[in-house]
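The protein record now logged underneath.
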Amino acid sequence: MPNRDKDLMSPQQPPRTMFQRLKWQTTGKPMTTLQKGAVDKALEHEDGRFDLFLRFLLGLSLESNQRLLRGLIKKVQHESKEEIGSYIKTKIREMPSSERVLNLFHCLNEVNDHSLVEEVQSFLSAGTLSAAKLSSTQWSALVFVLLTSEEKLDVFILRKYSRSDECLLRLQPVVQESQTALLNSCGLTERSCAGLASVLTKMSSKLKKLDLSGNSIGDIGVQELCSGLVNPNCALETLRLTDSRIGEDGFRALASALRSNPSHMRELRLSVNEAGNSGVKHLSSLLEDPNCKLEKLHLTDCSIGEEGFRALASALRSNPSHMRELQLSGNKAGDSGVKHLPSLLEDPNCKLEKLHLSNSRITDEGFRALASALRSNPSALRVLGLYGNHPGPSTQQLLSELKKHPNCKHLQIHGV
């Protein structure tokens, strides 16, 4: 026979003779011989070139499809379907968790073997997943269940499953398909940041919003994450790192990474970290970049003093048109630090709508400087937060009158 020595899985074989070759291959041999060979061949190719063919081939095992093919292949016995199902599950157990495993779960569906998926679904329905010690195979099954679920993957919430580095790293393919990843307060470390960096570098990643707040990732974790932020494929728009134990080194790395890929980021939350004046100076170099489109910046409780306020104000004056919200409460600004902000507010290109300066050690001198700037320019400012600063009676009167000024008729002053 002319086809006897040819590779039936070779892409050079003409597709018009495929059914003839299948019929020849299975004559006198178990169908599982071809099926197992097809599984092995598909796994050899990372590009997935044989994945659909493999699923098609396995679909021939179903009795309903055999009736439609009207004897083109030998009838596959029930034992044969069990054998190929067991073979596929063995391959799943042998492989590390990866995207290639997902096709094998589709293959199990083709032969109506849902045992691995049902195991994981029982954990999910009982709400015991966080306490369960899943095997590598069960983690892969969980990824498959989540990716094929009818529920939208727009938002991935890690604490619904298990608060750990291992869980996040196992579920990376799910994060990659989500637009928002809420990973806050899950006990994550720098290990997770390396995995997330890998997600950010993939061209197919849909991730736009990442919340890592409340995790002890530290400077090392930020540096790991930055290897993804610098990648041209990264299109992250929101990054939240509140209370993440980040110091000057982390701020330096983050500013450097975002300067190299600045056009996507719109919101950056870095409150409750040890930035200090030096950390904020690194961040200011990002804000000066004309390609930086950052609209929201949160730096509450970051140990910023007068020097840091000067650097921020100077950077925002050089590129004022995008920033809409600036959260600077709980820092050591004092009057000397706050007095750098009026020059920004007086700029007609300034589009700042929310400015929070609560608990910033501001006295009457600082309040007067802010009021003078707001009166002099039809400002875009809508909210001014001043809680915990305790202005004197004369300043309270000044700020009350400011609310009535034509240039400030839409301004809400909180805390006075």
Strands lie at 155-157, 180-182, 209-211, 238-240, 267-269, 296-298, 325-327, 354-356, 383-385, 412-414.
